[in-house]
Amino acid sequence: MSDREGLIFRSDYLGDTAAWRALAGLLEDTFDIDVTIMDRLGGPDPTTVPFGWFDETGACIANISAFSMPLVINGAFVRAAGLQSGAVRPSHRGRGLYRNVMEAAIDHCDAEGVEAILLLTDTPDLYGRYGFRTLAQHHFTGPAPTGGTAGQVRRLDMANDADITLLRRLLKARRPVSDRFAPLRQLEMFLFNASLMPDLRLDLIEENTVIAWQAGLDGSLDLMDIVGAQIPSLADIVASLKIEAASVTVRFAPDHLAWDGEAVLDEGEMALMLRSAKDLRPEHPFALPPMAEF
Ligand SMILES: CC(C)(COP(=O)(O)OP(=O)(O)OC[C@H]1O[C@@H](n2cnc3c(N)ncnc32)[C@H](O)[C@@H]1OP(=O)(O)O)[C@@H](O)C(=O)NCCC(=O)NCCS
Known about the structure:
The protein is an alpha+beta fold. The chain folds into 2 domains: 2-137 and 267-292, Aminopeptidase; 139-265, Aminopeptidase. The chain contains 6 helices and 17 strands. The chain has helices at 17-31, 38-41, 97-111, 161-172, 187-195, 234-240; strands at residues 8-11, 49-54, 60-68, 71-73, 76-78, 80-88, 116-121, 133-135, 138-143, 153-155, 181-183, 201-205, 209-215, 221-227, 247-250, 262-265, 271-276. The strands form 3 sheets. The chain has a 7-stranded mixed sheet. The chain has a 7-stranded mixed sheet with strand order 10-12-13-14-15-9-16. β4 (71-73) and β5 form a beta hairpin. The longest helix is centred in the N-terminal third of the chain and has 15 residues, at 17-31.
């Protein structure tokens, strides 16, 4: 234990503001990302259980956090969790701290009866040893559908607190955006990701459905997510947003959109990895919607 001398292990510490700030410091130093902007959006996901090592000054030295992320996979409910905020300070690497917090987080998920654990990483080699395997993701492209019915549209603004309250309400009551693979509930990361995407447009159709999208160079629709109790057809979305470009890209499986696109393998740097007791994997091409990335 000498490598851990002077360090204190803590779990489930997010209620302690100083410890939350210390974790934010570790993530800022490691990934150059400021998670404290979540404070204005309602705070981190309340299901989050972090596992970390702290030094005597209160600095967070190592961490991984588990959070509940119920999913639909192949049309069925899956009790799933995500792992995020995994890092060890350079001064303390190579001493098994990451293995220690990973094992604590996985044991916690297993004890909670979690059926599947997900993570996103640019170093998949690090996670095979814990039983994770990579799932291929796809995006979907094709001609923009025509003949849809246009609804009333209002653009939401992430700087407006009333719009955030509205988004929170719709996110709580949303239909999963796909039956092949989608989170049932993913509120905090949606808001956090939206705050970090300057080109994202959040357009509210008929006061009840938010279309999260970006415009391609030719003004085409690059669809990130749909938040509502009903999912409109892609034709109605294209008509409502007054998209005139000929093609569309959809970043999640389009099975609710009354539209078929060609599935194109994503070759980005981040791998989506899954650990489950039985061989659980989507039967058809899919992607984790970008707004749910964690
Ligand atoms: C990756 C990181 C968390 C490892 O922390 P660490 O405390 O040095 O890891 P450990 O000492 O517990 O090593 C655990 C195992 O992972 C291996 N490992 C460490 N970094 C690795 C990497 N980049 N790729 C593959 N394996 C790696 C170690 O060899 C060790 O293997 P062993 O258990 O068979 O001996 C740390 O280097 C870090 O914070 N990096 C920057 C942030 C990052 O990449 N986070 C993960 C993103 S998803």
